[in-house]
Amino acid sequence: MKLADKLQRPHLAELVPYASARRSMSGGNVWLNANESPYCNSYQLDDSQLNRYPAFQSSALNQAYADYAGVEQDQVMSCRGSDEAIELLIRAFCEPARDAVVICPPTYGMYAISAQTHGAEVIEVPLLQDNWQLDMTALIARAAAAKLVFLCSPSNPLGQRLAAEDLHRVLTECPDTLVVVDEAYIEFCPQASVAQQLNQYPNLVVLRTLSKAFALAGARCGFALANSDVINVLKKVLAPYPLPDLTVQVATQALSQQGLQRLTQQVSALVTERERLTSALDPLPMRRIADSDTNFLLYAVDNAEQLIQALAGQGILIRNQSAQRNLPSCVRISIGDEAQNQALLNELNDYFGVSA
Questions:
Q1: CA 213 to chain centre
Q2: How far apart are CA 24 and CA 14, in angstroms?
Q3: I need a surface site. Which of 52, 187, 224, 296 has the fewest CB within 10 A?
Q4: Mean pLDDT by 10 residues, the chain (356 residues)
């Protein structure tokens, strides 16, 4: 037995790591598999302080995000993407081999993997298949035994938002459980955000990221929004220098007035392309799973892997979601720019033998 295998924590021996889009697929020239923005924006960078460690938390960045999200600065913690916030929540509030988290599959895979890595139990309360909404009776019953409930709204991989009244009910009826609402895609339906209700609910945590609509997946910047007592606990387990200085510079500029104007324009363009793509795909032999409030679409097809490989052979990457609970043979398609989406449509028409 190799030394690492001998020394690793026993429960990690069977753990399957998260297969990110970049980790599971490579190549191609049209990337529609990671829900990234197709836009790449320019920033001005100052390299005069790169010999110094960055601040533990940048006041300028956190204030800029607080202003954007409509919360107070002491309700904001910046970190390395919302993935780190998920990890920190579990590390800070879950005792290994004793505490549990609740997830509602199909949902983002890192909730379960982070919990399993830490040794916390994962309780699954699947979404209702008739409308992909929360099974409230089961969720309320199971949440009482958990430290954290992770709710993804708008949903990845489905694309639709969770009902506002259900979110409020969970927050109200589970006052001793932290209810974590992951709003990674909220820029595509900002009216659905619960971030401005932090003062109403002491148990509310909201996760945000600049990776999607802000087109900064490569900068790795995210935020946890919560009441200050929760933020202070999270800071106890946060790394001493969580964000590189260059990331802080780029993120702060993205949240400037000019940056937010650009965000609005690019989100509008992506929504327009999403609707165009939806109209073009619906006549094809692909069944749309849910309406989308995000920058991606989810479809059921006859043979997901065959379709994915056929497109990859033409340089177009989309994502297989067939391993998700209750989503057999499903593919997820990120919204690209007009040229990328047209390239996808052309190949799909060829694949299905449909005249454009």
A1: 11
A2: 19
A3: 52
A4: 82 73 74 97 97 97 98 98 97 96 97 96 97 98 95 98 98 97 98 97 98 98 98 97 98 98 98 97 95 98 96 96 96 98 97 81
